[in-house]
Amino acid sequence: MSEDRPLHQRLALVDVNNFYVSCERAFDPRLEGRPVVVLSNNDGCVVARSEEAKRAGIKTGTPWFQVQGRAAALGLVARSSNYELYGDMSARVMEVIGRFGAWQEVYSIDESFIGLPGDEGVLRSTAGRIREAVWRHVGVPVCVGVAPTKTLAKFANHVAKRNPGLDGVCSLGSVPDGEIRRIQSRVPVTGLWGVGGRTGTRLNALGIDTIADLRDADPLMIRKKFSVVLQRTVLELNGTPCIPEVEERADKAQIMFSRSFSTPVTGRADMDQVMALYAQRGAARMAAEGLRASVLTVTAGVSRFAAAAGATGSGEGPSGGAAPVPGASNPVVSVRLPAPTQDPIVLTRAAVAAMRGRMVPGTRYVRAGVMFSGLEPATGQSTFDAFAGEGEERDMGSLLGNVRARFGEAAIGLGHAGLAEPAGWTMKREFASPRYTTEWKDLPVVSA
DNA sequence: TCTGGGGTCCTAGGACCC
DNA sequence: TCTGGGGTCCTAGGACCC
């Protein structure tokens, strides 16, 4: 995807406003103008909000059960997250954006950096055309920030979002530096890409509170006291591009399948079933990517909030507080597999065994996960070589995958994972929207 | 009662080697 | 009494992102 990048070329960060909400709205116009939130898996907490919901004071990360009671009074609409829809919409958005760039780097499900040639006037008109094209072809609104570095493009995009008068476009080249500095001196450092709460606190201790303060800090001092990452941020704020392209790797470094339960799991038999099912879901992802793993890690965890009674409510960020402390209640077990594999039978056995050694029956586990790492491309090696007839290639992973693709997710599974009906702990999705773009039977119907 | 999931990168420190 | 030093590889943990 990446060609050479002229050093002085501008770049743009294009991202979709309130992406998940905008996807829901694209297919359900009744949501227009109303406060709308999209919930995390298990309908746990708010992960996306429309502008109206933001104005109503609903924060990202708020547990749904705390808002639910007020929903009717606020006219608030909730949707369960529908990642199949968002993934497909994302691909469409990225394709349209890519038409305008000299190069494109897709940074996340709803954001893309692209290289833009031309003088200031051309840049601004291109940015405007990108907005129109995405709106016309996909039906979701985007904002565009244009600048010489990624960090500044992110900042420009932020400015475009906050200022409706700009029509969704901000090119820093059109803004006098005094004005840029004035804005930067009002935005806290943590508003910056790459500066989170922890680093923010440490910066504040040094008297660095705003983006402007960090821009004026000594890069060498920052490197010494923090890291190269933050040093790069300082340089980028001053117009020197130094955050390299994140290559889309042929191979991921890890594949994870992890979920919260709708009701806690306490028994060994249930946990066996969870591990078996999660290992197979992860194995299916690996097979789909043509990879195999040499290390398997299983995790389980208790509620981060249950024990909080009496504890000091330490400043919890929007992302939900501290990571679970490993221990008996939050086991993390890694095992090196005898040989790299994508075989769901081997992986399932290993996952079940690894967790059995660590889980404490009676403990109320609220989530668990299976992670594969040490990934490498899988060769034609298959599970049943010993039993396969000549010229016959049998591969359990693809076999299961094919059956699932054709007959549904729960149609087949190994051991405890062949679920005739969903187990008691499976995910809750009460407000799910249809898979408008990826399932024939969910195709929207238009009457005229 | 009920609080997401899936990633990446960097750094420090230990093991090991010569 | 004296007890090198530099390099690499690996892993765990921290921090951040969306």
In short:
The protein has about 450 residues and is α+β, with helices and mostly antiparallel strands. Helix content is about 35%, strand content about 20%.
Explain what you see.
With 448 residues, the chain is of the alpha+beta class. The protein is 35% helix and 19% strand. It contains 14 helices and 13 strands. The strands form three sheets. A five-stranded mixed sheet has the order 5-6-1-7-8. Strands 9, 10, 11, 12 and 13 form a five-stranded antiparallel sheet that branches. Helix 4 (83-98) packs antiparallel against helix 5 (120-137), helix 12 (268-289) packs antiparallel against helix 13 and helix 12 crosses helix 14. The longest helix has 22 residues, at 268-289. The protein binds a DNA duplex (18 and 18 nucleotides) through helix 3, helix 8, strand 9 and strand 12.
